[in-house]
Design brief:
Blueprint lengths: L2 E4 L2 E4 L8 E6 L10 H7 L6 E6 L3 E2 L7 E2 L11 H23 L6 E6 L1 H12 L6 E5 L15 E6 L8 H12 L4 E6 L8 H15 L6
Parallel strand pairs: 3-4, 3-7, 7-8, 8-9, 9-10
Antiparallel strand pairs: 1-2, 2-4, 5-6
Helix pairs in contact: 2-3
């Protein structure tokens, strides 16, 4: 199946129509929807009843070159990051709801995949929303939000031990916080890997999505 561009990014229909599940991909700061589309190309054959949407960040990147962002990193710090993420969420929430309506899929058959800033937004959705998701795969991210929701979303956190952009301790902190809040968390720190997604990370993500959505054809 090929990709089709739309207002907020790109869509890839399920191999078997109609779609019974949806994976939404969210890129890192300064990138765009095309960045994570190769993941869907790899995963789709294992999830034939699942559609994929790769989103562009809701704002233009303000860092001096093209690309998109979910929130600004200018002067961001531990004090103001939480508020920026919370302020960015309603726009993302609106796009998620529109995509679920487009594919006629409910929240319980939605999985979120994020990289870096996209992971921050995905984890915020889990931490803050009543509905949650069927699963979240968060690459190289951090938890920037208080966990106020108890929606039971299974979480897969994947991080390179050599990440110099977002240190791997953020993986540990997020895993501990969600576990303490009663969530099921699978956390993987990958030796020798920096701020990127390697082949092992791709495989771990596929396995997580198969757990989350692999049974939709039987639902």
């Amino acid at each position: 199946m090929g990709w089709e561009q739309f207002e907020h990014g790109w869509r890839r229909a399920s191999i078997n129509a109609p779609a019974k599940g949806l994976v939404v991909l969210m890129h890192g700061v300064g990138s765009n929807a095309r960045d994570l589309m190769p993941l869907a190309d790899i995963w789709s054959e294992h999830l034939p009843d699942v559609a994929f949407t790769s989103l562009d960040g809701t704002d233009a990147f303000d860092g001096g070159f093209g690309g998109r962002q979910w929130f600004s990193l200018r002067d961001v710090n531990e004090t103001n990051r939480e508020a920026r993420v919370a302020a960015a969420y309603p726009a993302l929430r609106g796009v998620l709801e529109a995509e679920l309506a487009h594919w006629q899929v409910p929240f319980e058959r939605l999985a979120l995949v994020g990289f870096s800033q996209g992971s921050i937004m995905a984890l915020h959705h889990v931490a803050a929303s009543t509905e949650g998701a069927a699963g979240v795969v968060a690459y190289s991210g951090r938890l920037a939000s208080p966990i106020v929701a108890r929606n039971g979303t299974p979480l897969t956190l994947i991080h390179g031990e050599a990440d110099e952009v977002i240190p791997v301790r953020e993986l540990e902190d997020a895993a501990d916080a969600f576990t303490d809040a009663g969530y099921t968390v699978d956390a993987y720190a990958l030796p020798g890997i920096g701020h990127t997604i390697d082949a092992d990370g791709v495989a771990l993500g596929r396995e997580a999505l198969e757990r989350a959505l692999g049974g939709v054809s039987r639902g």
